[in-house]
Amino acid sequence: xxxxxxxxxxxxxxxxxxxxxxxxxxxxxxxxxxxxxxxxxxxxxxxxxxxxxxxxxxxxxxxxxxxxxxxxxxxxxxxxxxxxxxxxxxxxxxxxxxxxxxxxxxxxxxxxxxxxxxxxxxxxxxxxxxxxxxxxxxxxxxxxxxxxxxxxxxxxxxxxxxxxxxxxxxxxxxxxxxxxxxxxxxxxxxxxxxxxxxxxxxxxxxxxxxxxxxxxxxxxxxxxxxxxxxxxxxxxxxxxxxxxxxxxxxxxxxxxxxxxxxxxxxxxxxxxxxxxxxxxxxxxxxxxxxxxxxxxxxxxxxxxxxxxxxxxxxxxxxxxxxxxxxxxxxxxxxxxxxxxxxxxxxxxxxxxxxxxxxxxxxxxxxxxxxxxxxxxxxxxxxxxxxxxxxxxxxxxxxxxxxxxxxxxxxxxxxxxxxxxxxxxxxxxxxxxxxxxxxxxxxxxxxxxxxxxxxxxxxxxxxxxxxxxxxxxxxxxxxxxxxxxxxxxxxxxxxxxxxxxxxxxxxxxxxxxxxxxxxxxxxxxxxxxxxxx
Length: 532
What we know:
The protein is 45% helix and 12% strand. It contains 18 helices and twelve strands. The chain has helices at 22-27, 53-63, 94-105, 116-124, 139-147, 194-204, 236-247, 257-264, 281-289, 324-354, 361-370, 378-398, 401-421, 427-441, 446-466, 468-484, 501-504, 513-527; strands at residues 70-77, 81-88, 133-136, 150-155, 161-165, 210-217, 223-230, 276-278, 293-297, 303-306, 486-487, 490-491.
């Protein structure tokens, strides 16, 4: 949960980087704005409804052919008004349908159907405020409402329908986040229901500046997406670009944040996380207060945060709930072990293969004795152990929680001891690989930890081929790659490069809250933003 303020240019703690114009448009990898590709839907977008119930029923039944949960009910309302209700039984709340909508309909009179606005106003005053009706004139609007948990009401001799969303509110209970557990701080996480997640954000930021804009992605799934930001604090060009990229997604199915993340990322082929994800409402709220933008996707407990920087991967939500001195020490510890996670195996391979003169004599004799009966070169031995360690870690994740940790720990001990006794590998390489694995676990953001794990393998190959020159070349290549990355127009290594003194205060250090509060006041004053 970084404290980098992305606000208007001109203040000493922001970095203004233009992301508009033709230059960015040419670099983005999104198809042009327009209708969905062919074959994604058989419903003409502008097909009007008929004024005959029989015609509308035939059209709806043809669209929902072989849908056993489709319900079509004919209702005779007072004044001989014939009405047809269409909905999917699996999605509609029966109690709300019968008590909240059906009973008020039984008091409807003929004269209230003459004017559509009059009918809507009449219904709004008599049904539950949570199920507000809307008028639909096209078949596409009606179908979208039905598949999203709504009821469509058709009336004889009228070429419009009323759509009322009374979706069955099924969701799991709020729980502690699984991937971002903390000792101090809130113990509540997002769930798969977007409405609940928006409520959690509203509880953390009780301000009218918190803006929520909704849209739908996925031509078949119709997944609901919410773009959340703080007005006048989040840069307007970033907000515009996020919404533009979301609107240009052309996919049949969007079932989670991973689908969207790859489609809107500046660098989809980079292993480093250009967009961060979090399960914690307090972490998402903190990012919004920094001027960032959050994207919520219905059906997933993860919230995407953008733009982000490289240093965000080494910051934990718990940093802001503990003493700033201890939090700063932990950050430096993460930086150190992140370097070891990338470089430790490659340095071991390079030194033992090409630069034995750099090893003290006593240590060199111990290494030679340990490797005396090992049949593989050091590089091959290291790669075997790295692959084995990753396999054990993956097995521990996939197995049931009760046995997963036991299998990963016991498996590592048993396999390692047996391999050493059999002379397949040496004992020092087990120490190096174990240290590397522990180092990767210290990185709080899973995306950054995965990226560092990926780079270990090419670094070992470079070390086994060219020695320390290969290690140096690999590290320089990684640094060049990081320098070329951007997240929605912001340099990935900001505020270290380009340097920003105030921004560094919460990257290399966790500054005291007194200093960060003053910095926030300065950001708000320069942006003319009232205190939320």
